[in-house]
Specification:
Distance between the termini of chain A: 30 Å
Helix content of chain A: 25-40%
Helix content of chain B: over 70%
CATH topology of the largest domain in chain B: MetI-like fold
Strand content of chain A: 25-35%
CATH class of the largest domain in chain B: Mainly Alpha
Largest sheet of chain A: 6 strands, mixed
Strand order of the largest sheet of chain A: 6-7-8-3-9-10
Structural class of chain A: alpha+beta
Structural class of chain B: mainly alpha
Number of helices of chain B: 12
Mean pLDDT of chain B: 90
Largest sheet of chain B: none
Radius of gyration of chain A: 25 Å
Shape of chain A: elongated
Low-confidence stretches of chain A: none
CATH superfamily of the largest domain in chain B: MetI-like
Order of helices and strands of chain B: HHHHHHHHHHHH
Low-confidence stretches of chain B: none
Distance between the termini of chain B: 45 Å
Radius of gyration of chain B: 22 Å
Number of strands of chain B: 0
Strand content of chain B: under 5%
Oligomer: heterodimer
Largest interface: A-B, 21 and 18 residues
Chain lengths: 348, 264
Amino acid sequence: MLKLENLSAHAGQFCLKNLSLEIEKGDYFVLIGNSGAGKTILLEVLTGLLPVLSGKIFLYQQDISLHSIRQRPFGLVFQDLAIFPHLTVFQNIAYPLQQKKVSKQQIRLEVEFLSGKMDIQSLLKRMPSTLSGGELQRVALARTLALKPEILLLDEPLSALDTSLRSDLKQLLFSLNKEGQTILHVTHDFEEAVSLSNKLAVIEKGEIVQWGRTEEVLQNPLNSFVAHFSGYRNFFRVQQNPEFSESVFLNNKVKIELGYKPEYPVSTAFMRSEDVLVSESQIHSSALNCFKGTICGIYPHLHGKELKIEHHGIYFYALISNKSCNSMAIAAGKEVWVSFKANAVKIG
Amino acid sequence: MKTTGRIRTLDMVFAFLGGCVLLFIIAPLAGMFLKTSFMEIGEVASDTQVSNSIWITLAISMSATLLFAFLSVPFAWMLARKKFRGRKLVNGIIDLPIVIPHTAAGIAILGIVSRGTFLGEAADKAGFSFVGHPLGIGLAMAFVSLPFLINAARDGFEAVPERLEKAALNLGATPLKVFLTISLPLAWRNILSGGIMMFARGMSEFGAVIIIAYHPMTTPVLIYDRFGAFGLSYARPVAVLFILVSLAFFIALRFISKRNQKDA
């Protein structure tokens, strides 16, 4: 449906470089990256608000790179929503319909339908300044949907909302997608990306570093940036010794067992912090990798504490519950054992 | 406690200085009003030369403001939105009339509208002359007061988030529609304030106007004329009446501007 080929563009200091990806009809495509990675620029380039420097944008095999803003069937919900403050909610939603010269009767019906869908019928006569963040978000969505866009572009749509509103809006976006609305959603929030997307792209410094089906990206992160976003906190550049081909070395010092012989040369190894076990003494278990290390950092985490453990200059991250943390009297400087199964180690 | 005491002393010093400045503004005006009786004001109000001059002054200044608003508000939007080489220079040029002595501004205007110039000859062909004509007076008023409108409008457009204009474009509006339905309504209060300032500044203009046209007499010229011919006591009631009329207009326009702000 939408294909980007070596797309480059820039706005001020930020630029997009040779960006390529494809979005199919009905996809919920999430583009994830840090602030300043170029996510918003990509949306503005797609809508025609920023010009393409080089490369092409194809929509249904038609090159639309040079099409004007009005010719592009993309509806963008801005991060700050960009609700027109001098117009009522009704007038805001009706705005795109008025530009299409739709009859007043049709506008009224369409606004009623969209406001019903977004559950904001009671707000139609209100001015935007009297609405909450969640209500404004729904107005912005209704207004953009009035365009009947081929692709709905969402710029950090959940970032300004509190937890309960986020959950409501996620449901709403999910159901819109299920009804067939193709969505391109940009965010810096990993949980948001994973919970909504069927395809995921990771953008770093204006370049797409990896994209594909969400589970493929999560299972096979290509570099530490993707691994960080996908939750693999332990990410290492490794060396492979031919004599020990079922294992790899970290910093040429620490040997990691893989448990099998890889079919290709290995350059990276990564694992989730949840898969790393921490104990006060060495345990005899099925885990092939077991090291003694020193706790050098303790960080709060949604599910307990994340420990940073140093072993011969290598840092392992382990996630443990608050209860375990208390029972083991975890403290910085304490010596502990870390262990993980060979099959917890992913390679790339 | 000591610090609070010092702050209070400082506040009092500043309030005293501010009071002096306010007194400097109010005292001459109050003196002029107190020395003028209602009868005198009534007499000048029924003087057709005075009422005609006030009417001419208001009409010309209002017309000049409206005409130049039509020309300069879109230009102010460009100055707020477009980044181009020489933008700072253009902004500087717009402020020039504020720093030029107004009689010099009148001479400059005369230089482009008098006979023998392109505009002068065009006016001749149309059967009139800018010199001694309301059009010439309007040009002189606009020249010295236009910066107030352009600067206020530019500041107003700059205060409109560009995202709103981008959103409107994305929602299918043409650039002209975006200007008319988003930028203009949101910058309207600044534009109106600028317009009021331009109108007020234009109608009080004397230096540039007298170079272009002694007749038809605008009120500032009439006040000068009466002062020169008959003295202070004849000029004062005209000045008081003109100030009252100007104040009435100024307050009415400010009221509209404030109401507009509330509506927005």
